[in-house]
Specification:
The protein has one domain: Alpha/beta knot, CATH 3.40.1280. The chain contains five helices and five strands, in the order βαβαβαβαβα. The chain has a five-stranded parallel β-sheet with strand order 2-1-4-3-5. The protein starts with a strand and ends in a 6-residue tail after the last helix. The model has no long low-confidence stretch (mean pLDDT about 90).
Amino acid sequence: MNSVTIIHVGDFKETYFREAEKEYIRRLRPFCDYKTVCIKEESSFGEDSEKLILRALEKEAEAIRNAIPKQALKIAMCIEGKQLSSTELAEVFSRESRPICFIIGSSFGLDEKLKRECDMRLSMSKMTFPHMLARVMLAEQVYRAFSINSGKKYHK
């Protein structure tokens, strides 16, 4: 069975995001082992100092590295990443035999060094979304990709 891990910085504050994600995780059970890993957001994000933000991103990156499954395809979710259609994302899943790990940073993003270590940078859109909404959107797109690959009628 395929393995998909979503590593995210910070957790939901709104229950409606949590419930939406749970629904897609429920739908994904027949297709893959879908796991989410929450990394604690560093507290210095309340500060305006660019140095403090960069230091916090480095600390988060270390925790993220420790949570990445061994031999996984690492995909950094970031605005400068490549945009894929749902069908193109499904192709990534169909050709990949390794576990797949998506990494979602905080509202300040991800550490640059960590992004360079990833196999792919992926962007959901040119538009900006709250990073917590990105988790729900990603869960839906992973479900859509598996639906496409299995021939289900979910994808239109």
